[in-house]
Amino acid sequence: MRSRAAYKLAEIDAKHRFLKPGQRVVDLGAAPGGWSQVAAERVKSVEGQGQVVAIDYLGMEPLAGVEIVELDFTDETAEPRLKALLRDGRADVVLSDMAAPTVGHTRTDHLRIMGLAEAAAQFALDVLAPGGTFLCKVFQGGSERALLDLLKRHFAVVRHVKPPASRADSAELYVFATGFRPAAA
């Protein structure tokens, strides 16, 4: 595996079984590629069944079955580029393990990661096909309510998950939203 994070995604998928052959997956904040590696294996993109599109401003070694875009996800050209790469311009799964560089001030760091999580959620609302799944890293810290409220309006089920590979003392959690409803208000 390319990264320790890969085990987290593998554990979440082993429990919830949301990555399936033939799906279209977008991996936001993909470097060094651990989540893309797991997704490519599960959706069988190497065999040509599924599709994995990864984006990160950090360079990434090529990975079989993964189309890599080296660009900051928050760049205004990122969303159109990702949609153009996706078959039918839609994804079945949006993954985000993005984390902003930390500055050492807990509140500031939390707000920065929540800003990325909210941007990832908005992207998911724009690109997911009906029934789609959104999995996003967040940190406990109080300002997740707006994100959860947004997701609950657009997904059948929204929950927090913490895989065993995530250190018990870490504030890291994942928001896992399934059953996307695009017409929800």
Explain what this protein looks like in three dimensions.
Strand 4 (91-96), helix 4 (106-127) and strand 5 (128-139) form a beta-alpha-beta unit. The protein is an alpha/beta fold. It is globular. Helix 1 (5-16) runs parallel beside helix 2 (34-43) and helix 4 (106-127) runs parallel beside helix 5. It has helices at 5-16, 34-43, 78-85, 106-127, 145-154, and strands at 24-28, 51-56, 66-70, 91-96, 128-139, 155-161, 172-180.
Task: Briefly say what this structure is.
The chain has helices at 5-16, 34-43, 78-85, 106-127, 145-154, and strands at 24-28, 51-56, 66-70, 91-96, 128-139, 155-161, 172-180. It is an alpha/beta fold and 185 residues long.
Name the strands of the widest sheet in spatial order.
3-2-1-4-5-7-6
What general form does the structure show?
Answer: globular
Tell me the β content.
25-35%
Structural class: alpha/beta
Mean pLDDT rating: 91
CA radius of gyration: 15 Å
How far apart the termini lie comes to 40 Å
How many strand segments?
Answer: 7
Order of helices and strands: HEHEEHEHEHEE
Number of helical runs? 5
Q: Poorly predicted ranges (pLDDT <50, ≥5 residues)?
A: none
The largest pleated sheet is described as: 7 strands, mixed
Give the proportion of residues in helices.
25-40%
